[in-house]
């Protein structure tokens, strides 16, 4: 999701990243951004193939992971290559107004869908842990499908519709100009609505969901610790309880990684996103904008690592796929 800026601080060719930094640094950024795009594509394609190929992985939670991977694959194919070219050519747009609108719309849609899927996964885990019996009965394939459809519907409503109807800005002609630019300038209303939908509301939901999961995990860990006889600490008895405690600690680490990566990836971008339209005097260098934007894109690169590679069943599936030992 490239950064929308107020009218007084839009990108211009002479100040864009590709014309602001040295050639060596430009090459470094190009290679780094290219690696992010490739890893995003390959990692998420592996997730999609694994879920489609192995029946063991076809469970409600993994349908969210699969749709998340599809969103991130779309980011890798439709958004990142054009973002890379636009950054490294000094903000020169070579592809006309049709692709300009399409690229910007895909950018907002795919990044929004990716974040909303993370929100759905947090809710899925919350329901599974807080209401395990009701979860197994109510979290059907149909309900999961409805949630996924809702995610994509909201993502389209916050991207393609406002863009093609001109609601995102006070002057729709500022998105694409004949001077070869595809700069995005949004009005304050769209900035607030899109930021709330794409990040702040999902972020709040994720914080509350994982905080509740963390609280329950601590209660369970304390209960297990109290139920272990003292002589067990010296090596006698209770191996199942030790395994359960270790599993709880692993779950807590996983939750920390999930929220840590998400916050580091997206919070800088959406702070900048929501502040810039309201602060015409605020200045931030195009280089910083580029790094912050690609930090957000990097979340699509990390998602398969967090939600799939850290899962034993997914790792086994990836091993079979990569060694061509699929039965």
UniProtKB/TrEMBL annotation:
It is a multi-pass membrane protein. GO terms for biological process: adenylate cyclase-activating adrenergic receptor signaling pathway; positive regulation of MAPK cascade. It is found in: Cell membrane. One of its GO terms (molecular function) is G protein-coupled receptor activity. The chain crosses the membrane at residues 31-52, 64-86, 101-123, 144-169, 189-217, 251-275, 287-310. CDD domains: 7tmA_amine_R-like. Belongs to the G-protein coupled receptor 1 family. This is G-protein coupled receptors family 1 profile domain-containing protein. It comes from Octopus bimaculoides.
């Amino acid at each position: 999701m490239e950064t929308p800026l107020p009218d007084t601080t839009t990108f211009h060719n002479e100040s864009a990243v590709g014309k602001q930094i040295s050639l060596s640094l430009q090459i470094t950024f190009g290679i780094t951004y290219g690696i992010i795009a490739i890893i995003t594509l390959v990692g998420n394609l592996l997730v999609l193939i694994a879920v489609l190929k192995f029946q063991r992985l076809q469970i409600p939670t993994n349908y969210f992971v699969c749709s998340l991977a599809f969103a991130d694959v779309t980011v890798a194919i439709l958004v990142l290559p054009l973002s890379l070219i636009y950054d490294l050519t000094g903000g020169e747009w070579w592809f006309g107004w049709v692709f300009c609108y399409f690229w910007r719309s895909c950018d907002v849609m795919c990044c929004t869908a990716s974040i909303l899927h993370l929100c759905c996964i947090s809710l899925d885990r919350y329901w599974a842990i807080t209401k395990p019996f009701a979860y197994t009965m109510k979290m059907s394939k149909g309900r999961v499908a409805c949630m996924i459809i809702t995610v994509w519907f909201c993502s389209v409503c916050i991207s393609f519709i406002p863009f093609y109807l001109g609601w995102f800005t006070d002057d729709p002609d500022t998105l694409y100009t004949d001077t070869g630019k595809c700069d995005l300038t949004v009005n304050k209303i769209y900035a607030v609505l899109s930021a709330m939908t794409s990040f702040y509301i999902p972020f709040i939901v994720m914080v509350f969901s994982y905080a509740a999961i963390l609280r329950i995990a601590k209660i369970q860990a304390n209960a297990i610790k109290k139920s272990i006889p003292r002589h067990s600490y010296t090596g006698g008895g209770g191996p199942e309880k030790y395994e359960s405690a270790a599993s709880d600690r692993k779950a807590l680490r996983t939750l920390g990684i999930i929220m840590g990566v998400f916050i580091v990836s997206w919070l800088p971008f959406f702070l900048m996103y929501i502040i810039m339209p309201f602060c015409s005097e605020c200045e931030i260098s195009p280089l910083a904008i580029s790094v912050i934007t690609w930090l957000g894109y990097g979340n699509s690169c990390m998602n398969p690592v967090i939600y799939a590679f850290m899962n034993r069943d997914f790792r086994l599936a990836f091993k079979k796929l990569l060694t061509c030992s699929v039965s």
